[in-house]
Specification:
It is a single chain. The protein is mainly β and 221 residues long. The chain has an 8-stranded antiparallel barrel with strand order 3-6-7-9-10-11-12-14.
């Protein structure tokens, strides 16, 4: 991770910002093939920031599938196991501190996992990425960092459900289908308050609104 990003006054990683709108209708193509998501090969990472620092971790994928037709991804969905989220960093932080933070993240202040043990993403639209500037594309494409997908192929829209609240998000992604394997990679920021995660943090150590998500999904026939 870039040392320049983790400055004394830490902001969310410089990344594509997901465009958030109201939930959209999910329509499935009954003629497509349904491929299972390989939960062992797939991964979702998160970065949360505050005035004095940052935290990193993962959320396991419980299950999901990808719809493929004519060698192209046309749909899909996956379920996240919020109860088994992990706090893994930053490096050098002791295990007790990470455990304390994890307990707080699971509480009603944040994800309230006892009441909402799962989160979900359902793809609603997929179109070729044109490379033109949109709300989710940065003008500085020549300076793409590790927190952005370098060569997006598609503009993805999907319903993200957290804490019982469903919003549609739009973001660029790199999606390929090679033989019997579908691969999708996306990196973007979302505003946690759109899903009712409003805990502000301590008065002298406020939590930033934006959470960075790094998503790698692998589907197999």
């Amino acid at each position: 991770m870039s040392a320049a990003f983790f400055s004394a006054c830490t902001n969310a990683p410089e990344s594509d910002k997901a465009k958030t709108t109201e939930a959209q209708e999910v329509s499935a193509d009954s003629t497509s093939e349904v491929w299972n998501i390989d939960t062992n090969s797939s991964k979702i990472e998160w970065i949360g920031t505050k005035v004095t620092g940052f935290h990193t971790g993962t959320i396991p994928i419980k299950d999901g599938d990808i719809n493929v037709k004519g060698g192209q991804v046309v749909g899909g969905q996956f379920i996240l196991n919020a109860k088994d989220m992990v706090v893994s960093g930053p490096k050098g932080v002791d295990a007790a501190s990470n455990k304390k933070l994890l307990g707080h993240l699971k509480s009603a202040d944040f994800f309230d996992v006892e009441k909402y043990p799962e989160a979900k993403f359902e793809l609603t639209s997929l179109k070729p990425y044109s490379g033109s500037l949109t709300d989710t594309a940065d003008a500085r494409q020549e300076e793409i960092s590790e927190y952005k997908v370098a060569n997006p192929t598609h503009l993805v829209s999907g319903n993200l459900t957290l804490k019982g609240i469903t919003k549609n998000i739009e973001f660029p992604a790199q999606i390929t289908v090679n033989g019997n394997v579908a691969d999708a990679l996306a990196k973007f920021n979302i505003n946690r308050k759109e899903w009712g995660i409003n805990y502000a943090g301590k008065a002298d150590d406020l939590i930033r609104d934006h959470i960075h998500l790094g998503i790698h999904i692998v589907g197999k026939k």
